[in-house]
Specification:
Number of domains: 1
Oligomer: single chain
Largest sheet: 4 strands, antiparallel
Radius of gyration: 13 Å
Strand content: 25-35%
Protein name: Antibiotic biosynthesis monooxygenase
Strand order of the largest sheet: 2-3-1-4
CATH class: Alpha Beta
CATH architecture: 2-Layer Sandwich
Number of helices: 2
Number of strands: 4
Shape: globular
Helix content: 25-40%
Organism: Geodermatophilus saharensis
């Protein structure tokens, strides 16, 4: 299992539920979360996946949905970092 963690400074406040929905529709995606620190406004996007291939497939699904809804029609902030971890214990 793998975890993909994106760090946001600050976490965007616009509705991004479509991101989670697009990712969760992909086989091999176990769960996705958006987390925010209420004091700083910084946040994390965390996804749990069966494989690195599932991470790539989820990213492709999110990009496809973004094109469909015109998400990239205006500039949007991105995460300050993205790291993929292998889950060694759960």
């Amino acid at each position: 299992m793998f975890a993909r963690v994106a760090v946001w400074e600050p976490m965007p406040t616009d509705d991004r539920s479509w991101v989670l929905e697009a990712a969760k529709a992909v086989p091999g995606v176990r769960e996705t979360f958006h987390l925010v620190d209420p004091e700083t406004g910084n946040g994390l996007s965390v996804g749990l996946y069966d494989s690195r291939e599932a991470i790539s497939a989820a990213h492709a699904a999110i990009e496809q949905r973004a094109r469909e809804i015109g998400w990239h029609d205006r500039p949007r902030p991105g995460p300050v970092s993205v790291t993929v971890y292998e889950v060694v214990r759960s």
